[in-house]
Amino acid sequence: MAAGALVAALAAAGVVWLNTGDEPPPVATADQVVDVPGGPGEAPTVRLDTRLYLPESTPAPAVLVAHGFGGSKESVDDDAMELARRGFTVLTWSARGFGRSTGRIGLNSPEHEVADARALVDWLAQRPEVVTDGPGDPRVGVTGGSYGGALSLLLAGTDPRVDTLVPLITYNDLGQALVPNSAQREPVDAGTPAVNAFADDGVFKRSWAGIFFAAGMGGAGLADPAGDAVEEGTEDDDAAEAAAAQAVNGPGPRGGGQQAPTDPCGRFTPAVCAAYAQIAQTGQADEATMALLRSVSPATVTGRITQPTMLVQGEQDTLFGLDQADATARQLAGPVKVVWYTGGHDGGRPGPELRAEIGEWFDFHLRGIGSDPGTGFEYAVQGALRAQGSPSVRTVTAPAYPGVGGAAPVQRRPVPLAGPEQVVVNPPGGNPASISSMPGLGSVIGSSSRLAGRLAVDLPGQSARFRSEAMTQQLLIAGASTVRLRVSAVPGTPPPPGGAVLFAKVYDLDANGVRTLPGSAVSAFRVPDLPADGAPVEVTVTLPGIVRPVETDHSVELVVTTTDQAYQMPAQPAAYRVALASADLAVPLVAGVGSSTAPPAGPLIGIAVVVGLVVLIGVVAYVRRRRADRFEPDLADVPLVIEDLSKEYPGGLKAVSDLSFRVESGQVLGLLGPNGAGKTTTLRMLMGLIQPTGGTIRVFGHSVRPGAPVLSRIGSFVEGAGFLPHLTGRQNMELYWAATGRPVEEAHFAEALEIAGLGGAVDRRVRTYSQGMRQRLAIAQAMLGFPDLMVLDEPTNGLDPPQIHQMREVLRRYASTGRTVLVSSHLLAEVEQTCDHVVVMHRGRLVAAGTVEDIVAGGGEATFRVDDPQAAAEALRGVGGVDGVTVDGDLVHADLDGMPRSRALKVLVDAGVAVEQAGPRRRLEDAFLQLVGEEPQR
């Protein structure tokens, strides 16, 4: 009862402590209507509903934050607050036709929405809270997602006063985004990773286009042709509009809503309405529609954008794929940094780390603070699901976006495909249709992209399949693959007037045949002028831009279908033959350095409660631990003694059984064993992270228990490095040491950092580190304070051969001071060269322990380097019990069957043979395989 009351009190204290901590910097906001000129069919003046966010200190550089389609200034309130708390003056607004702004939607028309943004820059130039670079020239950046991202590009390309920009998940060419064609007769220029054919005569992406049109049909602030504003209505948005806006922008707050108007064009300008009607009714865009879509696309101005640009694009995005950002990166005239992240229209908004990176971009380019973000390329690789349900993610960083700004073009690996020519049929009306993605559903599924990727369905008779062999090593696809196809009409079934419409996609097939469609992505393409007599036409098809690690034993499968429910298909029935014109799928590979993200932290209050409980439990158990720690004076100088150690889990699983071994001072001991041998479980018990079921662990004579004081004499790298990514390497080490409560002078920072060998990178943020750099920093952290016993789990992971050699020398030097090193590793050759003693485990039990030389020599096989190999072989064959004598150049190998090598040497010397060298024949790997029940491969 008393303990329970104390727990509750401590937890409550944690909450109070959090609530009395530092508050975020104050941000003041002010709403104001800004008048801008109206367009055709509108009142002379359009009213823009704006909000100004003022930081704690002004004047400050400004950032314009534009919202996505279907949103309003309320949609970007969180993003604006984050930037304002960083010290920027931020301006948001509801674009004309949205929220409480009047006017009609022109899809980022240069004469309307883009002109509105320039007028807002004029307005900022007059504000005393904004830093200016000259009369009428505010220091200003611009950002926004999707519709707002395109506005960012269009504004920067038409207004040189914009100093920098960060467009997110947006388009380069709206025509190619909504009416794509990913095939052309000639091979595609493959200089950049996600380049697309961007050919004419595309296929209408009707599902996403319909969501856009629905989002523009109703809402607030619409001005009718007479110029009078329609009544703004209530805060409750029309359900269909809200669902459409959420699909386009993701969940979040929205502005006030309004009843849907009776005008069939809704809030759109007549030109936009006519273009949608034309393409929705015919299924193909005419010249006027494509001209309009092109006129409102960033592609018209990207060649004039010289400002530093950070392009952020989502890898889970069936609306605006990676190919759109790829095109923009190629066209920009100024420096560009490209970031692909795991979200998008189907996967969610950027997380806190990426948003912080965007903030740092503005810090440097608008305020001149922080380090230069550079012009590199980052892409996120999503791995398996963790136990917590969230996927693991690692970021690969390259020095530049391949094929841009003088950077070398992307490397492409040919992956052979196999499969015969196949006939596929387009049913009447294109129904039933295959399913690759469900626009709008992806935003609900969010990060569960693996689930979304398994919802794909390809109907029999409509699909041709071509498959690779199983991978022998991981294949990391980073961008858009290409394939050369041969398409022909089946005689008697003439193709539709517009040509053959087909859809291509790449699946990841695991060893059990489970198929996953990465990013739920598909490439639509049209083959016009297909001869009715069956003559084939060859085209190069660009597959969707994806990031996918195809694991060992997995295969890739190319599927070509005649239907896809997200697109407009020809109503006329048709049949086609589809074959591989080239057997290879050209897969883009982008080399770089990788770093892993830690699992997302829980709410701070929960952390405070957990910390409080841990502290309480430690205090309550302190006396028990002292009593349990029966010191053994005879072992005071022995680093580690394990006796009869066992660990059994519920269900009867024994991870460790009756394990006993001893480690002496000055040893470098290797703990070896196959997967599941119990090595990591043993190390975790040694570190006091889990309780053994039986047996004892003594470190320098003291029993090991969670929180035991003797653990301070152990330096470890067992559970992985839990570095804070926003801090530098040096700051992480200092923070770690401060948590020990020991004096700074005992840390030996300089020596440990010299061991890390990171140079100036030690003062960079850890999120910029490669895996090898993190590994070296983790080992240096384990060496802080020069512990008497250092425990390392796979210390050479992520290190290249020179770094492994350096690590080997470091561990040997460390042990030569009288300290002890325990290394768990699967690299047998490294253990053989680094360690002097070995403990071999198998299925939780000890199978061998001793010096490396004894373990290796245990098989009785020996090798002698001699001057007369034939005479030596004859002499050894004459000794009883010696078998398997073979000659290999000047080497003679023999199985001594337990006879000491010294006796064999005497036999050779007595025979008049000069022996230059004698030693065991086996490697540690051979001995290890024999000990765990596998035969060495010769």
UniProtKB/TrEMBL annotation:
Annotated stretches, region: Disordered: 244-263
Keyword ATP-binding set for record: yes
Protein family according to the UniProt entry: Belongs to the ABC transporter superfamily.
Protein origin, superkingdom: Bacteria
Transmembrane region(s): 604-623
Pfam families, per the entry: ABC_tran (PF00005), Peptidase_S15 (PF02129)
InterPro entries per UniProt: AAA+_ATPase (IPR003593), AB_hydrolase_fold (IPR029058), ABC_transporter-like_ATP-bd (IPR003439), ABC_transporter-like_CS (IPR017871), Galactose-bd-like_sf (IPR008979), P-loop_NTPase (IPR027417), Xaa-Pro-like_dom (IPR000383), Xaa-Pro_dipept_C (IPR013736)
Organism lineage: Bacteria, Bacillati, Actinomycetota, Actinomycetes, Pseudonocardiales
Protein name (Swiss-Prot/TrEMBL): ABC transporter ATP-binding protein
Domain annotation ABC transporter: ranges: 640-868
Organism in which the protein naturally occurs: Actinokineospora fastidiosa
One GO MF term: dipeptidyl-peptidase activity
CDD domains, sorted: ABC_BcrA_bacitracin_resist
Keywords per UniProt: ATP-binding, Hydrolase, Membrane, Nucleotide-binding, Transmembrane, Transmembrane helix, Transport
Keyword Oxidoreductase: no
